[in-house]
Design a protein that fits this description.
The structure is a homotetramer.
Chain A (H helix, E strand, L loop, with lengths): L2 E2 L4 E6 L5 E7 L13 H7 L16 E2 L3 E2 L2 E2 L4 E6 L6 H5 L10 H7 L17 H14 L4 E9 L5 H10 L6 E8 L13 H9 L5 E6 L2 H4 L4 H4 L18 E2 L2 E2 L4 E7 L8 E5 L6 E5 L12 H16 L12
Antiparallel strand pairs in A: 1-2, 2-3, 3-7, 4-7, 5-6, 8-9, 9-13, 10-13, 11-12, 14-15
Chain lengths: ~325, ~325, ~325, ~325
């Protein structure tokens, strides 16, 4: 379902070329100062406009429709909408019957019996992450003083990220990347062994973000090649600080007070410029496809702020920051 | 919480050195033939006894306590228990106050205020996966003709798995590994874009399994280094068969009818034999620790059948196989 | 939380005097014809304007913001909003610090630490049921040929409903009532013994509707005075038709194929016209209060269509009508 | 599903004539002193043996299988089982094909396609409430100093309860009743307007208890005949104490600090002694049925302690008493 979280709960909605996209946030405590302009900095980080991102320019102005009164959250659900404005659906009519390789066109057609809104990827569009970023800003406020920071560490298999993107643009191709996310200042004890480990909840929401195909915590896949004697993080003191952080800040699914560290694999953007082979859903025959529309060359460029957002959302939920208890008790 | 699934739902319980471990399965349709001996083959695959696994020998005889009548499921919750018999808790008293590096001892102590059952790792023990395997057998029956197969493809960074394990035993050290899981015969259309993508649900349950620190689907992390033109899986025919399978059988979070493929990183077993530095929880001072007890050298050896089980559990849930609708309608 | 349902799931949002009220519907299958005008008939039945309802006149024009494309549902979440237009918040400023007896003013103040939107009852307003009615129209479409009908059977303890309302208006007082709801054509077997009995789910959502203080199924409270030999419904034939229907169509929490029958108690509207004693939240001293604003004399007049809506929502969920399975399978 | 609660969560299991019945409790905080004998007093109140209850005598000895270590809860799931011992299934073989009027025999047969465990009502048996009572004892400990007390106020429509039961025994008939439950010492602010009002959650779990057919809060159905001016509870002081308690301690779905009061309607026991008309599920023809087995004359006699238990369970959940946060923070 389109809902995530037990205490701090978000629901996502909208389509790329419909009226709007948005997010409904339930469980935000009352009394948190919040205005639309608080959301802009992170929304700008997600935006297109840079080299390697799509030419579609959306203003991404958030409209808070409920849950805020006199500049503060009320404890009621917060609906934030973003109108879709810079829409050019023409290109999509042409490709309606010829699913783009790597996209969700084929699976969506089958799942929804052909009734899905195929324009711009519909509900599968990366544009849906706008709502995640907005909810993430609120979650970041609530989990203070925890600090989260994500950055792109690799593109196209290289740490010369600009070079990799430039080269992909020149080749009319696309390129993937790896984003690393770190959170500092976490209390010891968040998460549960079964089934709500920190890794479980983080990966659950992370894999909702279009284009993510892998996640690893701490030493991750490389750690499988280490001997246990080197992998084990020596505990240095009563606060639980460790000499190394191969565990990525999590033991037994539970935060150990060290830095939380994970990396995600972002696949190359599916929207490449050349001819691609596919099939025609109506005739059942092979077809050649040249994708029009406006696309990102490297969606990984836009992913760091989204990873920060989903991490903040999970932590708010795990920290039990919700509108359950009487405010006077909190 | 200790529950997973929306339609086919499992809850896990028990401690390594308590009375028992077990699983409660809710939502299994009525009328499925089921006996305790159906569970044995997969339970045996999870068992210790091989080179590289612990010397603790549990018979793992499943006791079906409810939900089965006259050899068939009744539609009521199925409780399956495994008694703990080969228990040697002595070693754990010694290490009660000195948390083992790499284990959940430190985090559990903090999370549960020192009241956790620390013997044998308590509720964090790999022994809890016995219930997952039992539930997995039932899920495999329900999702037929889908077939799932997992195997260990690497240990200690090498594909000479036996050699890596032997060498770790000789060094009184431990070793991690990579397990690959594949599922064939899936219908097109399982999963939902937000937030219940196939990757989201699989990774959620996978990261509940002790020792898992990474997961990737299809080309995964390596795919981030490929150009989009090579990464995109060409669609060959109207059934959606693709030339390559870099997507691992999932587009937009939804199965595309090709083989589902994922790999998990299993960390080196934490229980190494040498001296390790840690702290004493009572005195707050540094301490040296030599772990006794009986431990696995390579827990990854036991993980394949667990990966098959959790995959089957997720697929049963996504296929909506539950005891919701009247049996006459099903 | 502000969400109800497992398969067909609704979330409610908005405030009486904020931007809007609305509903987010998740799990509606793709392909269902739906337009805004389909919603109008039931929305009109909920509206004010009749004798005994508030003078606030809202047009209640539904705006479908997502989840519908080319006149059909897409399988994505459906957001329906209603703008608030006929707002007169002036009266509420006066009573901000003096909670109205019978209203949620006092509890909301404490729960939300004074940050709640108090204007018009905020999120506690009966206006929030607009979204329920809209979702109910969609649910009614999905559960066809099941038919649901609710009506007001008593007001002020009398079956002369018009008389009771007229008399309350004359006395500048208010009056409660009893609404009976019936559903025909249900399959045998909906519901589960623990904890999702039909009575459990219906009462859960029914008690979300402002002003409901009791519910009974079949013979209900009166049935407690009958001998079992008279209460038991004799089974007449293999279809399960019974001679009497004291069970209200439910045995063991599960539909038995007979008519589903329940009645709800709607309390007298809290907004009476005379002086009432209360306290001042700022000074802590006793205060006298004369309520302004525009209020219903008998909210029970507007409840029947809401009861139909929530019944349809529960039945859609229990019938497993959701966007889980591939459309090609459904 | 067989699970209830978001923070303090219980799952019920077992059958009347199977191996056992029981409850799995998830979310109980670590460190709560708990032993099997703590459960006995309330279990004894639920037991049969008194005039008007069944001749089946179960010892109801609780076996704590997990989640308790050294006399305290560990934060892990608590499994409590009760073995079934005094079983006489013979009578049920005779009636297997002739569903008893008023019981769940007919609906269970259809829902589970004939695979349900029909002996003694299987999973529909009142015996399943043993687990509720055990969970309720733990919940009562956790919500201290809140105090809950329930009592039978009417049987067979009369307040001479003993007389009504005696007369029903003489007539080989059965009799229903009304149970009133009160909770004192609640904080202001528990519950949420949509959809987790206190009334919603209480009624949800209450209607899982076999035999309950109605619930009302405060003045309930009688309140619908009162004028609003009399129904509204005058607020006396800053603590929110009211002159009357027609609201039953709940405004807008949220506790107001006054006593929580509700009443439930318990139907007459279905197991009457005379001949009853039904059908034969195999032949499809009418049949006459004389019920054997051992039955209660007045199940309402056993309901008060169950109402206390479910109230405590809901309050623990609403008070957010769970094993989410690190124990050091709690």
């Amino acid at each position: 379902m389109n809902t995530f979280g037990r205490i701090f709960r978000i629901s996502i909605l909208g389509e790329s070329h419909g009226e709007c996209v948005g997010v409904l946030i339930d469980g935000c405590p009352a009394g948190q100062p919040l205005s639309e302009k608080d959301l802009l900095a992170d929304l700008n980080r997600r935006k297109s406009g840079r080299k390697g991102t799509t030419a579609r320019m959306e203003e991404d102005i958030p409209l808070i429709q409920s849950g805020v009164f006199n500049g503060r959250t009320t404890g009621a659900p917060i609906l934030i909408l973003f109108e879709n404005k810079d829409i050019d659906s023409g290109a999509y009519e042409r490709i309606k019957d010829t699913p783009r390789p790597g996209h969700a066109d084929f699976t969506a057609f089958h799942k929804y019996g052909g009734y899905n809104d195929y324009r711009g990827g519909g509900t599968f569009s990366g544009r849906l992450t706008t709502g995640l970023v907005a909810a993430g800003v609120i979650a970041k406020m609530l989990i203070r003083p925890v600090e989260i920071e994500a950055r792109l560490t690799e593109a196209g298999g290289s740490d010369d990220i600009e070079g990799a993107v430039r080269s992909a643009i020149e080749n009319k191709d696309s390129v993937g990347g790896i984003v690393e996310c770190r959170a500092k200042g976490l209390p010891i004890g968040l998460g549960e062994p079964f089934f709500d480990s920190v890794e479980s909840l983080l990966s659950h929401i992370v894999f909702s973000v279009p284009g993510i195909k892998g996640i690893e915590f701490g030493a991750g896949f490389a750690g499988t090649g280490m001997p246990g004697s080197a992998y084990n993080d020596i505990i240095l003191n009563i606060k639980g600080e460790t000499k190394t952080n191969n565990a990525g800040g999590i033991n037994g699914g539970i935060t150990n007070g060290n830095e939380l560290v994970f990396r995600v694999a972002v696949k190359p953007a599916s929207g490449v410029q050349g001819k691609q082979q596919t099939i025609n859903l109506k005739t059942g025959k092979s077809a050649e496809l040249v994708i029009g529309g406006r696309h990102d060359t490297c969606i990984a460029l836009r992913v760091p702020v989204i990873m920060e957002a989903v991490t903040a959302i999970v932590l708010a939920d795990l920290m039990g920051i919700g509108q359950m208890m009487p405010a006077v008790v909190r």
